[in-house]
Amino acid sequence: MELTLDRLTREYGPKIAVDRVSARLTPGVYGLLGANGAGKTTLMRMVCGILRPTSGEVRYDGRPVAQMGDAYRALLGYLPQDFGYYPEFTALDFMEYMAALKGVDRRLARERSLALLEEVGLAGEERRRVRTFSGGMRQRLGIAQAVLNEPEVLVLDEPTAGLDPKERVRFRNLIASLAKDRIVLLSTHIVSDVEYIADKIVMMRAGQVVLEGAPGEIVSAVEGRVWEARVSAAEADALSTRLTVGNVHYLESGEALVRIVAEEPPVAGARRAEPTLEDLYLHVFADERDDDAPRGRVRARGRHAKGGHHA
Amino acid sequence: MLKIMRYELKKMLTRRVAVVVNAGVLAMLVAIMALNVVQARFALSDGSFVGGPAAIEAARAERDARAGEVGVERVLSDVRGYRALVLSELDASELLEMSDAAAYSAAVRSFTDEQFDELCDPYWSWLMSPFRRSGEEPYQTVVRVSDEEFAGYYAAVAQLTQDALDDGQGGSWEYAASERAYWTDMEASVPEPVSYGWAGAWDNIISCAAFLAFAMLAVCVTVTPTFSGEYQQGTDAVLLATRNGRSGLVAAKVAASLLYATAYFALAAAIICGVSVVFYGAGGFDLPLQALGLSTPYPITCGQAALLTVGLMYACTLGVTGISLALSSRTRSQVAVIVAGVAVVFLTGMVPSGGSGILEHLLRLFPMGFSNFSTLFLSLTSYPLGPAVVDLAGAVLATWLALAAVTLPVAVVSWRRHQVS
Description:
A: alpha/beta, B: 421 residues, mainly alpha, 6 strands, elongated
């Protein structure tokens, strides 16, 4: 079982949302990390065949998925970002509807639907209308429908959005159990969602893969660049404005414990700390601005932009 | 696929807007048909009026009193009796010089209530129609036209078609030779003698068929979210990533839409036809259409004409369904689709032709343009296609079924090619 992404590119006019991303995915969990606008959702849509690439292709076991058509979608499970729903459907209606669309055997559909609803913590809610669900409940319903057809390729776009910590842990365990014989591609902002279960982390920025590897391996990229220090509260605030501060813990004494990602010790007395995946994330996306960050790259006129990382 | 269809129907019919519109239109049709019955009025010979079902019953009795075949012998016999009645109180030469209003006043003054009632029986307007001039009461016509002319009654009826062809829809349309031959041949195929009688239900159905346009609008509103609703809600991403998302699902959506449109239209038509038959009676189904309008050249019965009218509105409904689905598959905006539906169904009925025969012919293809007795069966609207001629009914049927045949595949292809971005 192998899913190949071969120089996948998606352009919207002059903007490049995904830029020549290549990867070879075998059974396991792949955590796709990146800020808003990095191209994760666009990439996932191309993997699911609901968005045609401008160039490049996705292949499953060597066959282009565009040619496989329904046969590829039969082994796909997808939970999109901003998962839509039908307000007047009950949870069971929705699951059975999706089961019919996924070609799940009619006799098994109800049984499997009820079992999955229980697994995601919606036991007893099957007859309730989805419009009465909380955001977290809807998200769990979305997860349940994604695995309804026991997919070989499972694509989850921000699956833990709206889930509380206990639900996120439950979800992680669920994914870990499913990943044994499946390719699971999971995108998130929340590093802890993938830190423990991902076999491989793929970091995207501006449409390109900038870093990839097993969590333990890639974290070494910030080895020696993570510092902890005890400073005054005022100094902590000042550091936050000019450096990449991962965590600030204000103490009763008026001081603060800060965790900083920087090339050099940020203050006197700063100690080196063991890097985590979150530190790596902050380091890679340190210069990303907030709301006005450009989404995707813009193609330079008259020539192809070069560079970018190929997996 | 049946299971998917079931859920598609559930999606369609549980949306709040759809529930309100569907129920509202049906309630409106019931109210309109109820008013149609309640507001019926019939003037009795003593000058008083009866209303509602009693009025309908009285009108039926009036027609039934003269029911039967109207051969030339009966024409002559009836005409002589009528003329004798008129001339018993009015002078022929004075009557012929009066305007219709003056003649009416003279008749009111000169006759008893019972005699005046007989004078104004609608049978006489119907019988005199081949000879009647504009601005002339039937009792003036019977005095003006001789028995020799009445003896050529059915030649005069045939002449009505020729006169209409010569008139060219008020000068706006020049009939081609093929069209003249078409209408002349059609009129010649009308069996003689025609029959007179009561066909109130079928006449009422033809008159009220235009209200089925509201059912079309309800169908448009209900099926519009079939595709655009998925785009708006963001469910398209999940659906298109499933095995049947680009194949079985779209077939189920189209099938569910057509099934709903047919069922809803049937319900609306059942209200119109049901109320008409219950209160006006089913009698007259086999009466020739000429009983409702002597100048119509169609060799069909009143019942067939009513069914044809309803059938044409159903064809329009299928076309509107197709248009709504095609537009829905191309846009997220449900409002835009509904506005287009309103324009196609209703606004086309408000566009003035400005005397242009071509524009008039085009506008008559739309529901509000053709759905009345006069336009459908009296106007002699035809469309020459080289040597072949298609009448209005044929053109409406072909146009709307063709629209459905073209737009439904557009919807299918648009959904199949839809990209979520």
